[in-house]
Design brief:
alpha+beta; two-stranded antiparallel sheet; 1 helix; 2 strands; elongated
């Protein structure tokens, strides 16, 4: 809930300014191979912090999911018609609801 963003200077080791290279703080090594921090950020950003779901509506036409704050693209298929709708979950503790009509 407290994550707002990631800032990382110098993607690869050996690309920092002057003495900053001593730390070897890049996400990639000097040969551009991923280091453990790169792999962990990839896992978090592209898997754990990403909401992917396939839902079916109930008999009243409702479906719910719990996702991370951010922008979503919802694809709805009904009666052979497929539409895509943008949707955003905002921070603030209130439930977000969207009514989609085909």
């Amino acid at each position: 809930p407290q994550m707002a963003g990631i800032t990382w200077w110098n993607l690869a080791d050996g690309t920092a300014y002057e003495n900053e290279n001593k730390a070897l703080g890049g996400l990639l090594d000097e040969n551009m191979n991923p280091k453990p921090a790169y792999r962990e950020l990839d896992r978090l950003i592209n898997h754990e912090w990403k909401t992917m779901a396939t839902l079916r509506t109930d008999t009243t036409g409702k479906a719910t999911f719990r996702g991370f704050h951010g922008r979503y693209s919802i694809r709805v298929t009904a009666g052979g018609i497929r539409r895509e709708f943008p949707f955003e979950i905002k921070s603030g503790g209130r439930q977000n609801r969207a009514r989609l009509t085909l």
